[in-house]
Amino acid sequence: MEKIIEESKQGETLVLENKKENTKKLFIESYGCAMNFSDSEIVASILSENGFNTTQTLEEADLVLVNTCSIRDKAEQTIRKRLEKYNAVKRTNPKMKVGVLGCMAERLKSQFLEEEKIVDLVVGPDAYKDLPNLLAEVEEGRDAINVILSKEETYGDIAPVRLNSNGVSAFVSITRGCDNMCTFCVVPFTRGRERSREPQSILKEIQDLWNNGFKEITLLGQNVDSYLWYGGGLKKDFENASEIQKATAVSFDQLLETVANTFPKMRIRFSTSNPQDMHEEVLHVIAKYPNICKHIHLPVQSGSNRILTKMNRLHTREEYMRLIDKINTIIPGCAITQDLIAGFPTETEQDHQDTLSLMEYVKYDFGYMYAYSERPGTLAGRKMEDDVPEATKLRRLQEIVDLQRVHSGIRTEAFLGKTVEVLIEKSSKKSPNDWAGRNSQNIMVVFPKENYAVGEFVNVTITNCTSGTLIGKAVGYSEMN
């Protein structure tokens, strides 16, 4: 946890192996959540089949795409600054076309074409297969837009191109959309209703990754615990499914167990979970299989029951704490991480103290913490006054961050003298003589390279730590190799 507060992931320029027959160049950047980065791989795959190779040089691109995040105002402001940069480049390369993808495209729709004169096309998260048609529209001199949300699209038939990959870990999307209408969140409006991907297509994608040397996957969704495949579409329609469909339905715990059984040497993670939807069966599957990582990201957002109600979080503080107790009982040593919002409308000092006391109860390994940012279109944005002064928000946020730093230190210190299994991912940022990789609990571990290599599982004895990093020495290969 080198950075405890994270408003949005930094823009990442994505590159794939080029095809000799392709003549056009694509520059694509992604911001925000892991789902956006996964979606960019789908986009690159679609465009690779339509004549585009990717480039890391903005100035030489024929097409520039930015995959956007709307979760907070700061993320949107970052995108607008990038569009200004594209505009400056486009003045010297008038043939360049620029498109906006993702949640911000879905939220602002045609407003983007009107406001940002640089933008030639706007494409929502469910319309990426229409990109070739939209580009044809642009080539004929017309603005192009498709932000129609789908009830079926999961891109299960698209083989993502692994962009800028370390060749070790990859995302595998299993659900899209969200049915949990949290009052602060734009996701249901920008990504639509929740639907699950057909299990066999998931297993095929993982098999392809295994065949290509990948050692770790993250099963990805806005709410993975709600995964439910029954041969139908939206989860909300399951009650109308046939008896055969219901009898053969696949839930998340069943999918997780199938993946763990089918790929015993593949390390498995998943994200993100919603407390109200996490069932005990999932915990038992995690405990049963050594290749499933002992880490659960479990956003709580607030420790106050009053604020949880205003957020439309369908769990109480007490229910959340009971779930934490179950995790600690069933999966000893499991890392638990959080999302927390400081300064939600009407939040009082007592509400804030309730959040701090919940943190003391759980002692999270790490987390993502934010000051509340009003999002247009959400229920909170429409119905609730953003009445907590900015200075108060920032002070409360800092108190949350400071406490999290203490708890993170406690959690990393608990590994001193212990031996952990690490999957080597890359060279350490601080030293070319050290490897860096994560343990099962998703904590970064740094140790001398010696004769080990990227993609190998190594046992490392921990000798030192910071609040976000474990430092140690390798003592041999693990059984996962």
From TrEMBL:
Cofactor: how bound: Binds 2 [4Fe-4S] clusters. One cluster is coordinated with 3 cysteines and an exchangeable S-adenosyl-L-methionine.
Entry-linked InterPro entries: Elp3/MiaA/NifB-like_rSAM, Methylthiotransferase, Methylthiotransferase_CS, Methylthiotransferase_N, Methylthiotransferase_N_sf, MiaB_methiolase, rSAM, rSAM_horseshoe
Chief localization: cytoplasm
Residues that hold [4Fe-4S] cluster 1 according to the record: C33, C69, C103
Segments forming domain MTTase N-terminal: 24-140
Swiss-Prot/TrEMBL keywords: 4Fe-4S, Cytoplasm, Iron, Iron-sulfur, Metal-binding, S-adenosyl-L-methionine, Transferase, tRNA processing
Cofactor(s) listed in the protein's UniProt record: [4Fe-4S] cluster
Domain Radical SAM core: 164-411
Catalytic reaction list: N(6)-dimethylallyladenosine(37) in tRNA + (sulfur carrier)-SH + AH2 + 2 S-adenosyl-L-methionine = 2-methylsulfanyl-N(6)-dimethylallyladenosine(37) in tRNA + (sulfur carrier)-H + 5'-deoxyadenosine + L-methionine + A + S-adenosyl-L-homocysteine + 2 H(+)
Entry's localization field: Cytoplasm
SUPFAM superfamilies (UniProt xref): Radical SAM enzymes
Domain TRAM: 413-476
Pfam families attached to this UniProt entry: Radical_SAM, TRAM, UPF0004
GO MF term (any one): tRNA-2-methylthio-N(6)-dimethylallyladenosine(37) synthase activity
EC number of the protein: 2.8.4.3
SMART domains named among the record's database cross-references: Elp3
Residues annotated for [4Fe-4S] cluster 2 binding in this entry: C178, C182, C185
Annotated Gene3D superfamilies: Methylthiotransferase, N-terminal domain, tm_1862 like domain
Domain of life: Bacteria
Annotated family: Belongs to the methylthiotransferase family. MiaB subfamily.
HAMAP family: tRNA_metthiotr_MiaB
NCBIfam families reported for this sequence: miaB-methiolase, MiaB/RimO family radical SAM methylthiotransferase
Quaternary structure annotation from Swiss-Prot or TrEMBL: Monomer.
PANTHER family named in the record: CDK5 REGULATORY SUBUNIT-ASSOCIATED PROTEIN 1 (PTHR43020), MITOCHONDRIAL TRNA METHYLTHIOTRANSFERASE CDK5RAP1 (PTHR43020:SF2)
Function: Catalyzes the methylthiolation of N6-(dimethylallyl)adenosine (i(6)A), leading to the formation of 2-methylthio-N6-(dimethylallyl)adenosine (ms(2)i(6)A) at position 37 in tRNAs that read codons beginning with uridine.
Protein name: tRNA-2-methylthio-N(6)-dimethylallyladenosine synthase
Source species: Flavobacterium keumense
Gene from which this protein is expressed: miaB
